[in-house]
Amino acid sequence: MFSSVYVSGNYAYVTDGGLQVIDISAPSNPEIIGSVVMPGYSATVVYVSGSYAYVSFYVDSFLGGPAYLKVIDISTPSSPEIIGSVELLASDIYVSGSYAYVAVRWTGGLQVIDISAPSSPEIIGSVDTPGRSEEHTSELQSHSFISYAVFCLKKKKKQQSTNHRTHSTPQ
Fold first, then answer.
1. Neighbour-count burial of 101, counting CB atoms closer than 10 A to its CB (0-12 exposed, 13-18 middle, 19+ buried)
2. How big is the CA angle at 90 (ends 84 and 93), to the nearest 5 degrees?
3. Distance (Å, whole) CA 11 – CA 24
4. 60: closest CA among 45, 42, 36?
5. Beta-carbon count within 10 A of 60 CB
6. Using CA atoms, how far apart are residues 72 and 83, in angstroms rounded to an integer?
């Protein structure tokens, strides 16, 4: 399960199964004061702008299924309420003005969502970003790990060689 946190004012918004609203006005004593849960779904990413939290929810199953970007009214932090929804699975969300920019998980790409009417968000544009589909992600991560491991080994070998030369006595 993926988790995300967004801090705004005295509140931290955490995706942990659902959306948890945590009062952090006393940092040594944070307290969950509200939540949104969709049975059978998990929340993954959250972005807060003004009185709204934008949260990605997906079906909690290996079989797949629908996923949604939910618009949640957080004007009363103790009683957050889902007011709008559009079907897609976000891996990241950024809001600017009347638009939410959503990086789409698995298939890749960017979706532009018009959020000027929070109760009825609408996908108005998109662009595919080839090479970022989930089927290639594990392969890319493996290559990245192997490249990093080779880099570290070369660096270590170079350091050992330098250390060996530094500690040798002149003849």
1. middle
2. 80
3. 5
4. 42
5. 13
6. 6
Which pLDDT value is given to residue 150?
41
Q: What is the pLDDT of residue 38?
A: 84
Helices (H), the chain: 134-167
For residue 76 the two structure tokens come to 């009363």
| The pLDDT value given to residue 145 | 40
> b/e per residue, 32-46, with b = 16+ CB within 10 A?
eebbbebeebbbbbb
Cβ neighbours of residue 30 closer than 8 Å, sequence gap 6 or more = 12, 22, 23, 24
Tell me, what's the pLDDT at 1? 52
State pTM to two decimals.
0.73
Cα angle for residues 1, 133, 5 (degrees, 5° grid): 35
Mean pLDDT of the chain: 79
Quick: pLDDT tens for 30-45: 999 999 988 888 888 9
Amino acid symbol at 101: Y
DSSP 8-state assignment for residue 17: B
Rounded Cα distance, 156 and 140, in Å = 24
Exposed e or buried b per residue across 15-25, where buried means at least 16 C-beta atoms within 10 angstroms of its C-beta: bbebbbbbbee
